[in-house]
Amino acid sequence: MKLFDTHAHIGLIYDDPLEQLRVIQEARQAGVQRIISINNSLYDFAKVYPNIKSMSGIYHAVGVAPSEVRNPGSDWIATIEKNLELPNVVAVGETGLDYYKQFGDKRSQIELFITQLEIAQSHNLPVIIHNRDAGKDVYDVLCERMPDAGAILHCYSEDAEFAKKCLEKNIWFSFAGNLTYRNARNLHETVLNIPVDRILIETESPFMIPAEYREKKRTMPAYLPSTAKFLAEMLEMDFEELCDILWKNSCKAFNLPEA
User: pTM for this one?
Assistant: First the structure.
C-alpha cells in the first residue's frame, strides 16, 4: 500500500523543524509515501519550505489563500512566480474563495483568486482551490479562467449536484477526514455519484480529524489510511485496489511520475 496526501499544512502541525521531519517519517511508516505541503501565506511558505525541501516524496504548492487577502505580501505576484521555480513546487495554491469568514470583500477575494489562476495557466501548473460557502462564484470563475493543467477542489464540501457540473471540466475532488463523519451525507452522496478516477484524498492536517482519531488534538498525514479505508468501504472496493487508483489519480493531478 502507498498513499498520497494531497493537502497537508505541515507548518501548522508543528513549528519546530525536527517535529516536522518526525511527522513526515511517521507518515511514511503508515504508507503515506507522498505529501503536498500547503501554506496559506508566502510568509509561511518561506519558513516551511527550507525545512523539508530535501525530504523525498514531499512536494509543495505556493500561493495566497483567501484568508490573506488583506495582506498578500509586498510584490506577491513576483514572489509566487519566483517560488514556482524552486525544486518540487508542483502547484499554485491554496487559493480560492471563503465567504464564511470576513476575509475582506468578495471582489478582492475574486481578484486574488483570478490572478493566481492566471499564474497557474502561465506556468502550466494545477491550482489547489479552497472553497467555503462560495461554490457558485468558484464555479463561475473556473468557467472563465480554468487553467489547462486542471484544478483540485480540496477538502470538498459541496454536494453531488455541484460535483456533477464540475465533472465537465478538468477538476479533481479531494476528500479529507470529514468524509468519515456520519453526518457528512453530502460528501457520501458525492463520492457515490462521481467516477473513482476523479477522486483524491488528503488529511488537511492539522484539521479535519478522521472519526477514528477523534480524541486527538490535530490530524497527521499518518492518519490518511483511515480515510482511505472508509472510502473503500463506501465504494465496496478492495482497499489495496482503491489505494492504487488513488495513487495514480494523485500523480496525474500533479503531473508526477507514478514511480
Answer: 0.97
* Per-residue cell: 37: 505541503
Provide the b/e sequence for 164-187 (b: ≥16 CB within 10 Å): eebeeebbbbbbbbbbbbeebebb
Do 70 and 103 meet the contact criterion of CB atoms below 8 Å apart?
yes
CA–CA distance, 217 with 221 (Å, rounded to integer): 14
CB 134 within 8 A of CB 99: yes
**Which strands sit side by side in the sheet containing 89-98, from one edge to the other?**
3-8, 32-37, 58-62, 89-98, 127-132, 151-153, 171-175, 199-201
Query: What percent of the residues of the chain are helix, what percent strand, and what percent coil, each to the nearest 5?
Result: 45, 15, 35
Alpha helices of 40-184 — where are they, by DSSP H? 42-52, 76-83, 106-122, 135-145, 160-166
Q: Which pLDDT score is estimated for 17?
A: 95
Pick the closest to residue 127 from 79, 170, 165 (CA basis).
170
